[in-house]
Amino acid sequence: MTPADTLRFATRAATGYPLRTALMILAMSIGVAAVVVLTALGDGARRYVVNEFSALGSNLIIVLPGRSETGGVGLGSLFTSTPRDLTVRDAAALLRAPDVQRITPLTLGNSEIAYGGRLREVLVLGTSADYLGIRGYRMALGRFLPREDLERASSVAVLGATLRDELFGIEPAVGRMIRVGDRRLRVIGVLEKSGQGLGMNTDELVVVPVATAQAMFNTNTLFRVMVEARSRDALASAQRQVEDIMRTRRDGELDITVITQDAVLGTFDRILGALTFAVAGIAAISLAVAGILVMNVMLVAVTQRTAEIGLLKALGATGRNIRLAFLAEAALLSLAGALAGLALGHLGAWGLRLAFPVLPAWPPDWAVYAGLGTAIVTGVLFGVMPARRAARLDPVQALAKR
Amino acid sequence: MAQIELSGIERVFTLGDSEVHALHAVTVAIEAGEYVAVMGPSGSGKSTLLNLLGLLDRPNAGTYRLEGRDVTTLTADEQAEVRRNRIGFVFQSFHLVPRLTAAENIALPLMLAGVPPVERGPRVAEALKNFGLDTRANHRPDELSGGQRQRVAIARATIMRPALILADEPTGNLDRATGQDVTALLESLNASGVTLIVVTHDPVMGGRARRRLMMEDGALVGDLRADAASTA
């Protein structure tokens, strides 16, 4: 029997029982579709987080007060306790490191903002002139915070785009006096619309000099210091220098945490990558179930076609001929199921992207190939036993069956 | 040297703890081109003998020489090759593959033998024509009458030009008239030189054979030649 004939014979056998074949393909396709959709979801989440972090800027080192652990970067290092204040002086000292280009201190707090009888809750960010450059924001109107001593509490403010619209409507904002908390500040600029970044919406922010904010919230410590290295390659040495400076300033004790964006990104990437993998693994279980179903269906087919197998043997078919024919049938069913599942899965992923536009829910290539491969391999593997059973049938008894 | 030589064939089936001698000390020789009817009551071992002749079954003892070659010791694949090239089967219940058309059913042995499709086409077309089936080529078995089905089965049995045709009650599922047609068809094949061995318990059909082997309880009890037999 030539391979082409084996394939043709198997195809005729598969199409000869349409309901059985359709159900089989459905079961297999659900398995493959589950892998495709779930990995698309997992990988979409991973990409979403990575994109959010990339929006921070490329050569960034973040210094935060407190140290909760000594080794590596974990999720815990983002939320540390504060044993000793991280001050504006500390931030300024970091500029002495040769591989550090710019720094900007950050203080955050909630307050009220008022103008012309309008009042709302607002997130106040205290920072310095270099914040604009480090984060890569642009001004829509006016100018950003003046370059001045970090400890000088100038009474100026820069508004986020949405905040400006809400407070001023069509009126010009630059030059007007607003009230933030108990302080009167002059609006000197408006930020260009930029959207979400790490859960902090810049468009609804009021930016003031760091000393102003510290006075407003009656605190000495900083929330973060953002440090920009001279280049991406200098990131590691800059991190070391920052740590050295801080250690010297704190009598040899390093009670701050220094994280690089790469480390944070890498951690999230790993966690979400593992999550995608786990989800794919769970979905793969349905493929194994589909494989067992292939075996079941093929065993039924062997029983159903016992007389036919006896006939083929009487006509001179070898055991090998029959084994190959049944194996080819199992492979065809799996292949058809896998392809149908792939189409179904891509449809599902497309639906996800349509429903959640922020989530780039594309199934990763490895998942697609792994899904297809597993489907076909399990189909063929579970087809071996029925095929062997068919080949071993005793022709006399097989023919006697009707 | 006869085409078929059986000597001292024993076939024992074990049913539970009892042994059934389906064939016992069967020794017979059949020449090429003979027309033989194997007759006897049910359970006399006719079908077992036919299965053995067709290499679908193996004897427990004795030797079977087909065309001078001891075929009882061949491997399963070698036996399959002998079946493919030298033996054609015709069954009582036709045994057509229901999802394949008449033409495809006839082409099955060619496909199994690895004959390329271009060569298969003309040979199947010729067979369809010879057996008066050219208008039914693309019909499936369930769209054919009983007589047509058996003709498809006979066409399939002869497509490889075998030396030996084994027919197990070929008219058993047919009415009288179509049964006679099928018998005549088989006899015409025999007239062209193919050995024909028919298992039947229809005395009319058996009476037409030139040689009759009578079986009872697994043993040959009579070997009648046409010239000695009365045409009942």
TrEMBL record, chain A:
Entry superkingdom: Bacteria
Main location group: membrane
Alphabetical list of InterPro entries matching this protein: ABC3_permease_C, MacB_PCD, Macrolide_Exporter_MacB
Transmembrane segments: 21-41, 271-303, 324-346, 366-385
Pfam families: FtsX (PF02687), MacB_PCD (PF12704)
Keyword terms, alphabetized: Cell membrane, Membrane, Transmembrane, Transmembrane helix
Chain ranges of the ABC3 transporter permease C-terminal domain: 282-395
Domain MacB-like periplasmic core: 21-244
Membrane topology of the entry: Multi-pass membrane protein
Compartments where located: Cell membrane
Stretch forming the signal peptide: none
PANTHER family (alphabetical): ABC TRANSPORTER PERMEASE YTRF, MEMBRANE COMPONENT OF TRANSPORTER-RELATED
Record family assignment: Belongs to the ABC-4 integral membrane protein family.
Identification of the protein by name: FtsX-like permease family protein
Organism: Aromatoleum bremense
Lineage: Bacteria, Pseudomonadati, Pseudomonadota, Betaproteobacteria, Rhodocyclales
UniProtKB/TrEMBL annotation, chain B:
Superkingdom, natural source: Bacteria
Pfam family, one: ABC_tran
Key words, A-Z: ATP-binding, Cell membrane, Membrane, Nucleotide-binding, Transport
Domain ABC transporter: from-to ranges: 4-232
InterPro entries with a match to the protein in the record: AAA+_ATPase, ABC_transporter-like_ATP-bd, ABC_transporter-like_CS, ABC_transpr_LolD-like, MacB-like_ATP-bd, P-loop_NTPase
Record CDD domains: ABC_MJ0796_LolCDE_FtsE
Gene Ontology molecular functions: ATP binding
Protein name as annotated: ATP-binding cassette domain-containing protein
